[in-house]
Every structure is written in C-alpha cells, then in structure tokens.
C-alpha cells in the first residue's frame, strides 16, 4: 500500500513536534509519510518537488513572510500557499486543510473561497479530530475532512 504524503506547514515548533508525536503515538507511520515545513518558502519547495508527491497539506495561516524587504507575520503567508496549490494544475488535486489558531469568520471564508478543503481551529481540534481526519484520509472518505455544508 502506498503511503499518503502529508505536508505540515507551521512556523510553530511545538505544533510540528505535536504532529510528529501523534503519528508516533498512534502508529500512523505505516499509512502516512509526514513532511514538515517551517515556512512558506520551504513549503513551496517541497510542493514543487515531484519526488515528494504531496497528497494533503495541513497549513497554518499566520507565518512570517518577507514583504517590501521587511519580515512581517500575516495570514497572507498561508493564503499565498493555498492559492498557489489550488491555482496550479499540477497541484490542485492536493487536499489543503487549514490548521490555524485564527478563527475569525473572515479568515475562514477567505480560506474557503481560495479552495481550502477544511478549516480546523488549533485550540478546538486536538488530537482526536486529527486522528479522525487521518482515518478519513486513509479510507479516502472525504466527508471526514471537508467544510461543513
């Protein structure tokens, strides 16, 4: 069985460790391969690498990016990755699950408009919901990882 390739994009080291621990604690290494990116540039490099074949992205929104020569932290960082994935015909099949600490309705609507498959609030969906989503990915049951109707 081919493993499902997941990319976690998050600048918070605690979240990156948390994800690795969930995979280890629940014995998910046999079903999934986890790639991790700490920022936008690293994420885009992994996404554009044909050898990586990413199937699903868990994407933080608010991360640092360089804009007009200055490093700023903004939700535009994650949204730019989302738009890149969903507008590129070679990548638009990739499921993108926004995994953010921001629960502002405006951010959720913008993520949905830009093609996100699901929006998870970090503080509300840990870790049991992640396990349910991983299970849905393994079973190819998209009803377990999409926006509520």
UniProtKB/TrEMBL annotation:
The protein's superkingdom reads Bacteria
Q: Which residues carry this modification: 4-aspartylphosphate?
A: 60
Give the InterPro entries listed for this entry: Bact_response_regulator, CheY-like_superfamily, Sig_transdc_resp-reg_receiver
Output one GO BP term: phosphorelay signal transduction system
Sorted alphabetically, which keywords does the UniProt record give? Phosphoprotein
Q: Where is the Response regulatory domain?
A: 5-137
What is the name attached to this protein's record? Answer: Response regulatory domain-containing protein
């Amino acid at each position: 069985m081919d493993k499902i390739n997941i990319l976690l994009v998050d600048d918070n080291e605690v979240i990156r460790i948390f994800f690795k621990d969930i995979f280890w604690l629940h014995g998910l290494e046999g079903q999934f391969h986890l790639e991790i990116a700490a920022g936008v540039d690293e994420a885009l490099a992994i996404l554009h690498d044909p050898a990586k074949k990413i199937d699903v992205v868990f994407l933080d929104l608010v991360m640092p990016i360089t804009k007009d020569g200055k490093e700023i932290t903004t939700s535009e960082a994650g949204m730019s990755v989302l738009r890149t994935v969903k507008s590129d015909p070679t990548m638009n099949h990739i499921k993108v699950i926004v995994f953010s600490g921001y629960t502002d309705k405006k951010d959720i609507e913008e993520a949905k408009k830009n093609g996100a498959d699901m929006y998870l609030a970090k503080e509300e969906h840990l870790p049991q919901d992640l396990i349910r989503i991983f299970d849905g990915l393994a079973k190819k049951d998209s009803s377990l990882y999409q926006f509520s109707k």
